[in-house]
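Long-time lurker, first post. I've been practising inverse folding by hand and with some scripts of my own, and I keep getting stuck on stretches where the structure tokens seem ambiguous. Below is the full token string for one chain I'm working on. Before anyone asks, I'm not after the true native sequence, just a reasonable design that respects the backbone. If someone could post their per-position residues I'd love to compare against what I wrote down in my notebook.
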């Protein structure tokens, strides 16, 4: 019977033998050093993982270089994490140092494990996406260059996860990361009726708006936008290029903090807005890098050991967070979504 190409291949076909043989039978793991994990199975088998920082968008030559390392030291086995780190997997402790040296020879940092900053997960940005309010790869490069030392050390209060989404549709993990950088549009789409008439399905275009801001316009055989309902998500541009959402003058970035997926010590939580707008200033985005470093260093200075960023904020109070970071509080930071009863602050207590 012919093989049918439906869905991803079975992941078990790509596991290293030591993982296959000890699947579900791991006894413990430990952090050997920043960037190096050691897993020990009930059988006594050991697996060493070397985590390396990597760009999300890479060249064929880059992939060949890291595959050469895997072929030489890891029997060809490596993996990519959801935050764009490379992990080399070996069952031989003698290969750990040679792998680290080979990575450093390529200019790749080793780290991102334990109480450190892992690589930044991010969306497509200008290089591919059609609705970004800002770039993704460029901002991630600028921010991680600035925070580089925190990737190679593991003495932070807790782990720190940063995400970047280049628009409000957030195909990155911006809603559940300790710090999130989100591109924001601030103006409604500019309509090109000629393009809409020629290439758009009006019912689909009307239905795509999550806030019901788009209405049919029979007079122009097009659509109209009710601007007071528009939330500038850019979803309509996906349906028709005649709904141009990009605005070089008014598009920018927002900063959110406090999210996490982990349920250790406290429940998973969503990120909260703290800086509603920062300007787009490529190629290094100094305002964004400065804002992120300020938040990170304030957390490092004041948090207790083991506290994630959101847990530290919950302990000291959001009022104290704004005071310590010298971030001006804006009315844009107030959660006014009408269906967010579970996330509203219901306490009358304030912490300054």
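-- Answer (accepted) --
I ran through it position by position. Result:
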């Amino acid at each position: 019977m012919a093989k049918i190409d439906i869905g991803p291949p079975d992941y078990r076909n790509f596991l290293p033998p030591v993982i296959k043989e000890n699947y579900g039978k791991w006894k413990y793991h430990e952090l050997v050093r920043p960037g190096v994990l050691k897993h020990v199975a009930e059988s006594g088998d050991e697996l060493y993982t070397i985590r390396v920082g990597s760009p999300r968008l890479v060249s064929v030559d880059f992939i060949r270089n890291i595959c050469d390392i895997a072929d030489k030291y890891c029997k060809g086995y490596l993996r990519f994490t959801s935050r764009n780190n490379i992990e080399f997997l070996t069952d031989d402790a003698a290969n750990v140092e040679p792998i680290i040296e080979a990575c450093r020879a390529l200019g790749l940092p080793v780290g991102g494990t334990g109480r450190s900053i892992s690589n930044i997960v991010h969306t497509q940005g200008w290089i591919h996406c059609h609705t970004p309010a800002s770039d993704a790869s460029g901002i991630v490069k600028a921010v991680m260059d600035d925070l580089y030392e925190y990737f190679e050390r593991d003495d932070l209060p807790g782990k720190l996860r940063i995400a970047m989404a280049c628009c409000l549709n957030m195909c990155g993990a911006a809603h559940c990361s300790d710090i999130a950088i989100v591109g924001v549009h601030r103006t409604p789409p500019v309509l090109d009726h000629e393009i809409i008439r020629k290439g758009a399905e009006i019912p689909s275009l009307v239905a795509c708006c999550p806030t019901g801001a788009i209405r049919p316009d029979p007079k122009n055989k097009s659509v109209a936008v009710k601007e007071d309902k528009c939330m500038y998500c850019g979803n309509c541009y996906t349906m028709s290029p005649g709904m141009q959402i990009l605005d070089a003058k008014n598009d920018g970035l927002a900063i959110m903090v406090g999210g996490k997926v982990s349920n250790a010590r406290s429940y998973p939580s969503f990120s909260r807005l703290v800086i509603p707008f920062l300007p787009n200033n490529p190629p290094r985005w100094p305002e964004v890098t400065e804002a992120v470093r300020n938040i990170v260093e304030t957390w490092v200075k004041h948090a207790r050991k083991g506290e994630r960023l959101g847990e530290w904020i919950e302990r000291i109070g959001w009022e104290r967070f704004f005071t310590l970071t010298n971030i001006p509080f804006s009315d844009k930071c107030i959660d006014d979504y009408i269906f967010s009863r579970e996330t509203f602050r219901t306490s009358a207590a304030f912490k300054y």
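A couple of notes from the structure itself: The CA atoms of residues 259 and 269 lie 5 Å apart. The mean pLDDT is 91. Happy to go over any region you disagree with.
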